[in-house]
Amino acid sequence: MDRRKLEEDFCRGLMIAATFVVGGSLFAVFSVVILKGAPALSLSMITELPQGGYYLGGEGGILNAIVGSLYLGLGATALALVLALPVALFLQKEYIGNSRLGRLTRLSLDVLWGVPSIVYGAFGFIIMVYLGIRACLLGGIIALTLLELPIMIRAMDEVVRMVPQELKEASYAMGATRLETTMRVVCRQALPGLLTALLLAFGRGIGDAASILFTAGYTDRLPHSLFDPVASLPLAVFFQIGTPFPEVQQRAYASALILLLLVLILSVASRLLTRKFNKYVVR
Amino acid sequence: MRFRRLKDLVASRFMLAATIFSALLVVLIAAGLLQKSSLVLAMKPLTQLLFSSSWHPLSGEFGLYPFIMGTFWVTGVAMLIAIPLCLLVSIYLAEYAPSRTRGVVKPLIDLLAGIPSVVYGLLGVLIIVPFVKNIASFFGSTTNGYNVLSGGIILAIMVFPVIISISEEVIRTVPQGMRETSLALGATRWQATKLVVRRAALPGIIAAIVLGFSRAFGETMAVLMVVGNVAKVPSSVLDPAYPLTALIANNYGEMMSIPLYGSALLLAALVLLVVVFLFSLGARLILIRVERSYGIG
Amino acid sequence: MSVFKPHISVHKLNVFYGSHQSLRDITVDIPEKQITAIIGPSGCGKTTLLKCLNRLIDLTDGVRLSGQVLIGGVDIYNDKNIDATCIRKRMGMLCQKPFPLPMSIYDNVTYGLKIHGVKGKKRLDAAVERYLTMAGLWEEVRDRLESPASRLSAGQQQRLCLARSLAVEPEALLGDEPTSALDPISAQHIEKTFRELRKDYSIVIVTHILRQARRLADYVIFLYLGELIECGPAEDVFGRPKELKTQAYIRGEIS
């Protein structure tokens, strides 16, 4: 009995230690960004475009990157939604869920989920060359859409699968078609989860750098058309941290802080929306 | 009535089109990469490209071996660190932690999952790299901190939320019956937990680890910033490395200017894709076998 | 004593789940405008039979059917012109666990109506009041029609499901153990409602509560391990059961 108790206590100690390590690394991430980024954060950072000599320490802000990231994220998420929701709904039992096409699709989506974002960037690059366009907003949106698609589909698929079969049967029992049941009952029931999936993909999209590295370009200005190059927050961080000037490196931290805040806002928004839409959901 | 049937049909067709597109996407990407790599594949045999350590792009040498090894070293270290830690934390959160602790720790971990990789890169550069440098010099090494270990550590941190959130969920949803039976026979809590984890939660935990491995394997920016980017096969964790993802990211400018170089880089991307594909396939087969031997599904 | 007019006729129905045969050569008529109780021990195919009557069985994987189910003389499985959604509209269904739709009480009742093309706020309002009254729920919820249906108690939810099914104006009501998940008072309420609805609808309920069958049934069908053992008017089956198995079941020897 003693030995077993010792084993139990030892393992419990290990577990708590592990939790501190994991929790500690989270804390480290936040504190690094906040401590280093907050001093350099100013109103001009978020409201101004980079002026001449910005990268050598001059005046300006990263409005170009903020707006650019939002354009990229919104465009990609909207496009991904148009494809992801139909696919997630199509993977239900009543459509192709249990058929060979369904299993093949799920496997294919598993692979896509694991594909590194840089590969999406490379493929996006290939498409751009094929279409004859240069690094621009459209290119970035294409690459990001491809990145977000499997993430969104997987998250949506999970929620849709959790809709109880009896609920769907209740709808069918009244003479509803598959489309009617899917749109009016399934989507309603899964709505909080679908929104979460949307915001999850959006968050992943604006945070990614590798896929837009060679597809979106970079510029100090705001894009005026789909074919203009566009700046982005992750790349702003990446480029600024690479310079030898400490003032610019400081700005990198501030940019990272802004990015982190954006992601945090999305996370909070996701939770709030879930709560708001949960009232109709049937347990 | 007929109109309703028509709507149902049109919607089905649309969904089918979207699904076929998504299913074929892998094939499209593979085809595109293959087509672009054909240039360098025509110049050199595949075995040389994959297994030669000589990377001198400007003189036409494109041995990808150091980069492939770099990727595996860094991912391996990351998983070695992450798996035990994540298991411990998942078990703790699922079985032992008071619900208040769980309520605080779990959302924080979910938050970790959404943090962009460049931000992790900053953590790496500012804290991990000096940390590794100091620890290593304590043991007599002269590394500057930009090495496999730093890369592995940062990847492990990135992978924590993925593995923990899934594993914790899986362990928690194992029905109480199994634990209660064990406890009723006089087992300690830890013994009951071991039973639950080994017998019931294992498939889910394996799935979580696979997911984590995918994430670590495909990561670009964070690892690029801390791993040293030296094109040599690492011989220890304190050596710098150059993963495939970092290779592509660092040299993207070359894609346009030197076609052969660009082709080699896209071959690297193709290698990544193939590995992910084989891995997903393999993981699914292992999962099926594990589930079958446990009598599930 | 009501006149026996068959509304639904089942003829040599066999149902297979994969290789397991769930229903064996079932041939039975279900009378119009009476309460028919399908009784028998658990797992003997009662729910399967019920689901065959509105083709909800189509939604289950791996199911094979042979035989005929005739509603008003029309074979709902083999007739080319038949649309499953039309059949389901004609058969209302109540399940064991009440499943309100994830919407407000009002929307729950009007769901079926809107799908089948009924428009106009006045018509919908009137329908909501009418069917909630028929289900015995109107007085309790008239002030909170917009609140989520999931907030109702189980008994109220089941009455809501009843109102919802009645709203599409079916010919028959099918109930799969409709009161077994409810507290006694709600159960009583539902049973009372069934007795009132009997004038206008054919009601078929599956139940494993013998006493409920005795209370409600005009006509009884006894199934045992997928086979039809006995069927007939309630007084006959309960009072003078012909088969040994029926006698045993009614006496409580087998369950």
Report helical residue fraction of chain B.
Answer: over 70%
How many DSSP H or I helices of chain A? 10
Number of domains of chain B: 2
How many beta-strand elements of chain B? 2
Q: Largest interface, and how many residues on either side?
A: A-B, 85 and 83 residues
Q: What's the shape of chain B?
A: globular
- Taken in chain order, the helices and strands of chain B follow as HHEEHHHHHHHHHH
- How much of the sequence lies in strands of chain B comes to under 5%
CATH architecture descriptor text of the largest domain in chain B: Orthogonal Bundle
- Gap between N and C termini of chain B, in Å? 40 Å
Q: In terms of quaternary structure, what is this?
A: heterotrimer
Detailed description of the structure:
The complex is a heterotrimer of chains A (283), B (297) and C (255). With 283 residues, chain A is an all-alpha fold. Chain A has helices at residues 2-37, 43-47, 63-90, 100-114, 117-131, 137-161, 165-172, 178-207, 233-241, 246-277. In chain A, helix 3 (63-90) crosses helix 6, helix 3 crosses helix 9 and helix 8 (178-207) packs antiparallel against helix 10 (246-277). Chain B folds into two domains: 2-36; 65-293, MetI-like fold, CATH 1.10.3720.10. Helices cover 79% and strands 1% of the residues of chain B. Chain B contains twelve helices and two strands, in the order ααββαααααααααα. Chain B is globular, with a radius of gyration of 23 Å. The two termini of chain B are 40 Å apart. Chain C is of the alpha/beta class. Chain C has a domain at 6-98 and 172-251: P-loop containing nucleotide triphosphate hydrolases (Rossmann fold, 3-Layer(aba) Sandwich). Chain C is 36% helix and 26% strand. Chain C has helices at 46-53, 84-90, 105-115, 121-134, 138-141, 154-167, 184-197, 210-216, 234-239, 244-251; strands at residues 6-17, 20-31, 35-39, 63-71, 74-75, 91-94, 172-176, 202-206, 219-224, 227-233. In chain C, strands 6-7-8-3-9-10 form a six-stranded mixed beta sheet, sandwiched between helices. Chain C has a four-stranded antiparallel beta sheet with strand order 2-1-4-5, with helices on one face. In chain C, strand 4 and strand 5 (74-75) form a beta hairpin. Chain C starts with 5 loop residues before the first strand and ends with a helix. The mean pLDDT of chain C is 88. At the A-B interface, helix 1, helix 3, helix 4, helix 5 and helix 6 of A face helix 1, helix 3, helix 4, helix 5 and helix 6 of B.
